[in-house]
């Protein structure tokens, strides 16, 4: 953690995520460089805004190649090389490589790396589905001799590191293998396919150990110069072994790939001694480091990654290695190892088949070395999804929270949504559904979620149940898989429909959604669900688990009813609508207390959950909302919630005429609060309020969605999804002088914001072509404008007049009316 009052903030945005660095005032600023995405040879490219740039499918029966591997077993540590030399005798019009891998890979042609993908292919339930990618390699091949090289890594397919989730015992685990087709179309119209077969050769690589969970070890002394080039004497290499396909489903990886997206120079380096240096890259990221070294023979360097420092300056990983269960000392957690060559030349090491979550890197060596800040670079890697939104305003806490949330979201997007990039790297279901709206307002992540929903379908049991983490080695089917977590199966396809107007995810998952809800109905006939993980990370008041679980059950049933209606399945619509009403009635009978007009004990989470998920009767809403506001005020505007409450509290307040209170709660900077994290120098969102566990979680990330929906007012009309019809309901709150939100929908950019001068507030919105918006401007708690607007840019100017500058209470603000209280507001609307 960086010292208080030792923060500098740099921000730039315009539909690009901004770069923020937190550092001591005396420290050098980090140099952050966006890595260009050179996609010349990537045939399967990113699809943005539901438009496929190029998509190619390859059915299983069309593959010409065999699955090949070397002769070692799954416990052998050294990664294998593969190579094949071929001859091209004619002029080519097009050449494509399709490659499917059980494990991870790097692909080379004539010594040059092909594509920009990292940690490819993405994690799936490997014994049920494997992914392939296709590359255009026309420019890489040459007339005459050519050599294809493949380096295989282990990934989640052959995880040898041992932890509490037992991926080392996964049913699919085996030595990595791959299948490849090189398809060439010549200028004369003839075609040829060069495929993997027994003529390929293999040898051991200098990657002597690799674990996507713990780290990578590389022995440069074992390098084979020119191993992937023509002319190498490979007589000592051995022929490969033909093996079976890991599954019967080889599917296209139609997902934005993981890439090295940003390079970050350290802000400081602390030389502890001549064999121990600690680098601070200034922010928390997911990724690896590139280090440049020059030393004498026999030098071994270790890079240990962490989020904390001990008081003595060493890297502290005690918050992130707690689930690791090593069997010996050869696989240290969060650590990469590099054994230098014997020739004393300058060398560069960047791991290929692992990643870490870190801000600090401790570099130690067995011999004295000299390092400066220039020797090390942090590499931020994640699924390379396109930015889709931006937030900027006059409140630095909001700006910092928005960027910190983006950093956490991207750090936990690796072809599937994860919980944290260091301690677990698991696809926890709740983390994903709690942050789904934040993700979709800020990034075009649709394809990543569609891929992950396919992972869910692969994991679902015949009775409808799922594991708590997806993909899973088998862990999580018997515990932690409760409705408050597994609602991801229902919520995520519904949100994809709402944001994109595309019902395909709902269609693909409809039978699975039904199977799960039917299972809950069968096992909980009274409509109440007592099991759940509940409001995790709550500070003081712990919400009733049956209350929160039943609320999610209700929402799931309601979504399934709406989905049935969308697909014109009238019997299902009626069935699940009746179920939703039954759940709602049971919920209110048990948890609503008419005497106090509270739910449960009246905790912040309990009342906000009931309000947000639509379980409160219309005639009780104002009283329950007033009690929620009262409890927030009585807590001195402090949060008393966990993760489930973080999804609901700001929204429940805003939707029930307490937007100003929600804003004050969102920007509070004393413990416990989101703002407190920013005050402590966090550049990502911690897992819990006291910042003692993971410092890079997306658990509490709903607040970023609230910036768009609550302040900016960008709400979706479910009857015309995809922002075809926008319910634009901005809340101009006291104390936030300037605010601007922008979201790129499938129809174009939507903008909403205001600017305050001494006597005026100007609200401006942009509505994209082929859409309409119902605009309702809430100014200091009073509706001052209601109008339907079409495409274009619109603005309204409101004149403010007050007898005193100080603010009394929120009830003092009534636009268009002169008051006898301390403050008065006069509004004059203008439409351009």
Structural descriptors:
single chain; 832 residues; globular; alpha+beta; 11-stranded mixed β-sheet; disordered N terminus; 22% helix
What does this structure look like?
- 22% of the residues lie in helices and 27% in strands.
- The protein has 832 residues and is of the alpha+beta class.
- Strand 12 (207-211) and strand 13 form a beta hairpin.
- The protein is globular.
- Mean pLDDT is 90; it is low at 1-31, 42-57 and 803-832.
Round the mean pLDDT to the nearest integer and report it.
90
Report how far apart the termini are: 49 Å
Instruction: Give the count of helical stretches.
Output: 15
Low-confidence residue ranges: 1-31, 42-57, 803-832
- Strand residue percentage: 25-35%
* Structural class based on helices, strands and sheet pairing: alpha+beta
Give the tally of β-strands.
Answer: 38
Radius of gyration: 28 Å
Q: For the report, how would you describe the main beta sheet? A: 11 strands, mixed
Q: Indicate the percent of residues in helices.
A: 10-25%
Give the overall silhouette: globular
């Amino acid at each position: 953690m960086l010292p208080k009052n030792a923060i500098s903030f740099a921000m730039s945005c315009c539909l690009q995520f901004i770069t923020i660095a937190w550092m001591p005032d005396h420290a050098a600023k980090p140099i952050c460089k966006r890595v260009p995405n050179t996609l010349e040879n990537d045939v399967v490219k990113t699809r943005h805004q539901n438009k496929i740039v190029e998509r190619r499918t390859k059915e299983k029966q069309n593959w010409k190649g065999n699955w090949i591997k070397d002769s070692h077993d799954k416990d052998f540590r050294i990664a294998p090389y593969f190579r094949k030399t071929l001859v091209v005798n004619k002029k080519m019009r097009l050449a494509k490589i399709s490659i499917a891998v059980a494990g991870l890979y790097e692909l080379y042609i004539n010594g040059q790396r092909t594509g920009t993908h990292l940690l490819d292919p993405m994690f799936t339930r490997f014994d049920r589905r494997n992914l392939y990618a296709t590359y255009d390699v026309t420019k890489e091949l040459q007339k005459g001799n050519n050599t294809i090289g493949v380096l295989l890594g282990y990934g989640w397919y052959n995880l040898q590191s041992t932890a509490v989730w037992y991926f080392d015992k996964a049913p699919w685990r085996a030595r990595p293998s791959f299948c490849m087709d090189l398809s060439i179309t010549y200028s004369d119209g003839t075609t040829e396919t060069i495929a993997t077969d027994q003529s390929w050769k293999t040898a051991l690589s200098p990657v002597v150990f690799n674990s996507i969970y713990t780290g990578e070890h590389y022995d440069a002394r074992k390098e084979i110069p020119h191993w992937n080039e023509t002319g190498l004497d490979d007589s000592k290499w051995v022929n490969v072994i033909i093996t079976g396909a890991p599954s019967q489903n080889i599917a296209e990886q139609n997902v934005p790939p993981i890439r090295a997206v940003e390079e970050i120079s350290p802000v400081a380096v602390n030389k502890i001694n001549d064999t121990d240096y600690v680098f601070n890259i200034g922010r928390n990221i997911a990724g690896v480091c590139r280090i440049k070294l020059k030393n004498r023979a026999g030098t071994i360097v270790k890079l240990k990654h962490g989020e904390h420092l001990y008081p003595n300056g060493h890297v502290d990983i005690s918050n992130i290695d707690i689930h690791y269960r090593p069997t010996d000392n050869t696989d240290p957690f969060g650590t990469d190892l590099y054994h230098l060559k014997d020739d004393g030349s300058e060398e560069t090491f960047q791991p290929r088949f692992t990643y870490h979550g870190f801000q600090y890197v401790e570099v130690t060596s067995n011999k004295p070395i000299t390092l400066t800040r220039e020797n090390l670079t942090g590499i931020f890697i994640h699924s390379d999804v396109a930015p889709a939104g931006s937030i900027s305003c006059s409140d630095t806490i909001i700006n910092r929270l928005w960027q910190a949330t983006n950093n956490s979201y991207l750090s936990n997007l690796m072809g599937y949504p994860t919980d944290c990039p260091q301690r677990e790297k698991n696809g926890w279901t709740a983390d994903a559904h709690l942050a789904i709206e934040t993700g979709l307002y800020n990034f075009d992540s649709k394809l990543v979620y569609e891929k992950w929903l396919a992972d869910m379908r692969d994991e679902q049991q015949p009775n409808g149940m799922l594991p708590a983490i997806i993909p899973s080695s088998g862990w999580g089917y018997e515990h932690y898989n409760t409705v408050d977590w597994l609602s991801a199966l229902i919520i995520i396809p519904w949100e994809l429909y709402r944001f994109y107007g595309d019902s395909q995810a709902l269609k693909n998952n409809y039978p699975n959604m039904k199977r799960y809800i039917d299972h809950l109905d069968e096992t909980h006939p009274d409509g109440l669900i007592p099991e759940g993980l509940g409001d995790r990370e709550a500070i003081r008041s712990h919400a009733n688990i049956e209350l929160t679980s039943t609320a999610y059950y209700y929402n799931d049933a309601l979504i399934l009813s709406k989905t049935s209606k969308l697909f014109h399945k009238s019997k299902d619509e009626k069935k699940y609508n009746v179920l939703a009403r039954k759940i709602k009635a049971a919920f209110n009978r048990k948890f609503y207390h008419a005497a106090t007009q509270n739910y449960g004990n009246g905790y912040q989470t309990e009342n906000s959950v009931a309000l947000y998920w639509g379980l409160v009767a219309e005639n009780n809403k104002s009283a329950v909302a007033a009690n929620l506001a009262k409890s927030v005020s009585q807590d001195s505007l402090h949060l008393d919630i966990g993760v489930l409450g973080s999804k609901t509290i700001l929204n429940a307040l805003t939707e029930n005429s307490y937007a100003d209170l929600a804003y004050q709660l969102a920007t509070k900077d004393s413990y416990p609060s989101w703002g407190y994290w920013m005050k402590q120098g966090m550049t990502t969102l911690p897992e819990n309020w006291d910042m003692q566990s993971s410092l890079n979680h997306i658990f509490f990330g709903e607040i970023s969605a609230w910036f768009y929906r609550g302040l900016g007012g960008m709400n979706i009309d479910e009857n015309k999804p995809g922002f075809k019809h926008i319910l634009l309901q901005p809340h101009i709150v006291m104390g936030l002088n300037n605010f601007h939100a922008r979201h790129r929908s499938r129809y174009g950019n939507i903008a909403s914001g205001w600017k305050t001068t001494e006597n005026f507030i100007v609200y401006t919105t942009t509505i994209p072509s082929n859409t309409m918006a119902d605009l309702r401007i809430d100014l200091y708690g009073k509706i001052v404008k209601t109008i339907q607007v079409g495409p274009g840019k619109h603005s309204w100017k409101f004149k403010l007049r007050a007898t005193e500058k100080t603010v009394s209470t929120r009830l003092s603000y009534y636009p268009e009316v002169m008051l006898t209280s301390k403050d008065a507001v006069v509004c004059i609307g203008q439409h351009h």
